[in-house]
Amino acid sequence: MLKAVFWGFHGVIINDDDIHPQLIAQLLLSENLRFDLEEYQEMYLGRSDRARLTAILQTRGRFVRDDYLDGLLRKKAEGYGEWLRSQPKLALYAGVDDLLYRIRSKQYVTAIVTGAQRADVEQVLTAAKLTDQFSLVVSASDMPVAASKPAPDSYLAAIDQLNLLNPELALTPQNCLAIESCFAGVEAAKAANIPVVGVAQIYPYHMMQRCATWAVDYLNEIDFDWIAPRYERGSNAATMEEKPAV
What we know:
This protein is of the alpha/beta class. It contains 11 helices and 6 strands. Helix content is 48%, strand content 10%.
C-alpha cells in the first residue's frame, strides 16, 4: 500500500529554474571560465549543484578540491538567498498547499528528496511557512557527488531515514510515490523501484508521459484515489500499465 510521498524541489515545489544557470554563470565568470547554456541544459539539468559544478569545472580543466567546491556552493547559496529576498512573491507552483493538505488527509508520510543544496530548501520552506509539512529533507548537501540523481541513492537514503524515525512504517520502495519534473529525478526514482508521477512543469506532458510511471500537467491533478489502488494490486502492475493522466 502507498505510505509515503517524496517530492522533488526545484521544478516541483518552486519555479526557480531560470535563476540557477544565471548563478552558475556568475560563479564561472568569477573564475574566468565560460558558461554554456546549451551545455547546461543538455548535460546538467536536474543534477545536484555539487555534481554539475564538479563536472563543469572538470571539463574546463580545473582540479576540484572539496574546499574549493564548498566555497563556490556557499557563494551560490548566498546568491540564491538574495534572489529569493528580491522576489515580490514566492514562486511556488500552483497546487503545492492543496497537495500537501490531501497528503495529510490520507496520512501519508511526506519528504523532500532533492539535488538542491539544503540551504536553498530551508530558505524556501521557511519563507513559505512549510517547514513542518515535511518529515524529512534529503538534499545534495547530505549525499556525495556520485550519489546525485539520476542515481537512486538519495531516494534509498530517504527510505532508510524514515524507517529509523518511524520503525512501524516498515517502508519499502513499493510503498512510496515520487513526484518529479525532470528526467534525472524520474530516472532516480525508477532506479530505486519507486513509482513516479512526472509533472509537466519543466518539460511538456508528452515527454513526462514517456519516462514516468504516470504523468500530469499540474500538481492538483495528482489523484490519490486513482493511484492508491494500483499499489494494492502490486508495484509491477502499477509500473507496467498504461500511463494516463492521474
